[in-house]
Protein: Protein kinase domain-containing protein
Organism: Pyrodinium bahamense
Amino acid sequence: TGRARGASPCLRLHKTAFLRIVGRFREELEQRMHLQDLDLSMEDLQVRAVVGRGSFGVVKLVHDRADETRRYALKCLSKQQVVREAQQRFVCVERDISAQCYHPCIAQFIKTFQDDTHVYFLTEFLDGGELWQAIRDIGQIPKHYSQFYSASMVLALDYLHSRGIMYRDLKPENVMLDSRGNAKLIDLGCCKKALRTYTIVGTPEYMAPEVILPIRGYTRAVDWWSLGVMMHEFIVGPL
């Protein structure tokens, strides 16, 4: 309880106005609560389709056998391929940092599984496709879309940076859209908790100069350079 020292105005916001302002975020929170279930096991999941393929495995659309409205993406990484490419550290980083992050502009992480041959990442299913593909389908993105996508990434990066995390590989391929068009950051494998680092990591077209020539190392500011390149794509079209 707070007590004012003198006469103070009291401002009120009607419930309907409040819900109108935060409505989308309320829906997002309710959806996240609906999906989050740390007791899920691999046996609880039913595969519906393969929705993506990558260097280390596939991504499958799955649902909870007990509730088909709970749909997830299951990323299946081949242990053999991960070891062959010496990517064990990146897989561990993605797991550890994903488990720490909870933000509406970052894909929701649920949990991981493993067996003798694969490591599995269970996340929310984003069925709007990659932002990369949207840029190529649309060409020059309308101004209000550009502003929305840019602002979403600003919020995601600010959240990571506030926790001392550099993202280091921001590009349209690492941003997915959900069914309502919300943009969400995915793939946290290149992240690093540090104030300064010297490792060359990322995608050349989106790298800041100090990453390519890390004489003095670089900071999380490199993420803002990458966002600037993405914003350029929004305005003038794909690189």
